[in-house]
């Protein structure tokens, strides 16, 4: 008769069926605990199983110490029930049982066989487990668990160096130069990184160096005698030079120390890098000691700062991207009108021009031509309609709306509650321009204009109208849904919306009243209530922030400039009404 070794015998099946479900689960738990504790396969532990009702003889397992139900429990020679106690004091005993008996582990309880203990052997797995391949990832910054937005990131500059000197050494000044450079870059608002900041023992240094170089906006190469002999510096310089060739905005600056001669560069380890094409400047001893940077390096750092602002600001990025469709000669003509340096690369020129277009300017009185309109006339006709509209609207708004008003609205938007502001405006487009300037994005903050009802119950009706308008805009119907939290859920939805796309602004075209403002502030602490009036000085009495207003002539000039820019862009008016949420 052929016997299948993989199939358990009839006796084994009877033994397995005799074990109760709670005993099986306890046995599996003990087996897992034994494997974690380091027990050897085949050596059992003594445990105590829960006894229910009348005590029974323990069901055997598949180990060597098991017995059938109803049969007397037999132990092989040297394997008595108190074997763990004997093994604990015997020099040749099993170490697993000795540790279990002496450590107080629940698996080390030795009791009589009929009181409920059961010896469960640690059975090795049937097949070897597949090895798990793990990848170690270095977490450099842990995000805030509460979702608080961190400060704006600083531009990253990679410092390539080779420092073999010890502190206070007299062989060279490479260590002093590196420390002075890192400290000065940090003082200028940059984040200077070098290899010892992020490399750890066992890291794949080439991959880590490449990641840092590709995540930086510039590379400063400290040219010292040690750097000219280092193959690692040559590897870093090669990656930085490749980035410079691909992206004209990337800055690769070589900072030559006093102990290096230019004639030695062709024979150094950096001979593969065309250092003649790289910006190189000398760093004198007195400048290193005083912590001053060369003027040429400071000019390059200004360009790095502009590039970082363009990358981190959605508005700057939108204007720079929209200008990509303009011809280079049109860009240079607009730059000449706004007095931007013309000897720049095309990529750098677009960033400089976007910075000039988004600068606050004082209106030029007629009959003199306005430089902003002249510059827009050079680039808007050659752009497609959508990019032209983006450049026209953002340029006019940022040039005419006061930056202090945008700062006031930004402070209110970041506040927790009680956000009430007053704007003195007489023109229709002034409100939208203020909200667009305060958002810092190509679209204004979401804003809803609620009509003020008339009558004796004006305050109560206005509260109901605001609640209905905001709930309809957010799609919140939790007031009638028992599963939602009513008013508390409404505030939670408002908080989430504020963190996602900015605060919801409710526009009330009515002079602020002390009683009305107090009631609205109590009912809607999460909303930004903006009262629009036709005269200034009404926000002091109601404890509200009065935004920096435009004069009547300033509002008229804003409307005329905006209309002229829209005509140059091919549109007579904005595509969305001012009241529609963006």
From TrEMBL:
Q: Where is this region: Disordered?
A: 1-112
Top-level division of the source organism's lineage: Bacteria
Q: Low complexity: which segments have biased composition?
A: 58-70
InterPro entries attached to this UniProt entry:
TIR_dom, Toll_tir_struct_dom_sf
Q: Which GO terms describe its biological process?
A: signal transduction
Annotated TIR domain residues: 179-282
> Known Pfam families for this protein?
TIR_2
Spell out the Basic and acidic residues composition-biased ranges.
19-32
Identification of the protein by name: TIR domain-containing protein
Q: Which organism is it from?
A: Embleya scabrispora
What taxonomic ancestry is recorded?
A: Bacteria, Bacillati, Actinomycetota, Actinomycetes, Kitasatosporales
